[in-house]
Amino acid sequence: MRWTQWAGWFASALAVSGCGGSDADNAEASGGSSSASGGASASGSSSIAGATSNASNTYGDAHEGQYHLGPVDFAESEWHNACAPAGGYRSALRSVTGLGGEYLAGVSNTENQSGGVCDACIQITTGTGRSIVARVVTYGVSNAPGDLDVSPSVYAALNTNEFPRSMSWKFAKCPDTGTLSYEFQTGANVYWTSLWVRNPRVPLGKLEVKSEKHSAFFELRREGDGTLNDDGGFGNGAFTFRITAMDGSVVTDTLSGFSPGELKQTSAQFQ
Q1: pLDDT band at residue 131, thresholds of 50, 70 and 90?
Q2: CATH fold for the domain made of 24-37+176-265
Q3: Cβ contact 129:162 at 8 Å
């Protein structure tokens, strides 16, 4: 499988969404409050290798295709990771994003859900019975809609020298790698606010905010790079997020404010 050179796409994304945060590693505790409520249960297949997910923790339909050594990696040795700002995933996020290693994958443009796949975990199961959970960090052109590009760690866990490298994948619950983080774009401000929700244990459905400018919860617009955007901005002061996952579970999180380019660590997470 071959992936596009991301330069043209990424320049377009910069123009539209203002992405391009620096690799600053400053993380701040929110000092806010959070709560979570359960949603519908999921169902699916079992995992037997690598970063694993229980049989009850997959979501939606299975996607059929082949897996390929991208490579997909944090070093961006071949292509930019489409779910990251210019310069890639900052180092403070790489351990949790990579599920304690570098368990990464890229899906096809057909399956990118307008950036909705960014930072979601997927369970990959091969025709030989090997299975692993990986985090989606990019997408691009593929031979077939269900194909995946994977990192060397994922490839090594799955491959038995079979050909074709048939597999299926489904959205999945991630292993426990800690709490949610909010990565604000370097251009974010009170008049235009844009951020990534990092390390969601369950794939995201939507992000809403209640703030100085929004007396009721307002849904943020998703961009192709996975950012969530409020084109009118949050305004000044504290704000509350309501985050809904793919399985219907909901987390609320109140924060005191944000700074441009800030990586804000919180105590919130899906169960």
Answers
A1: very high
A2: Immunoglobulin-like (2.60.40)
A3: no
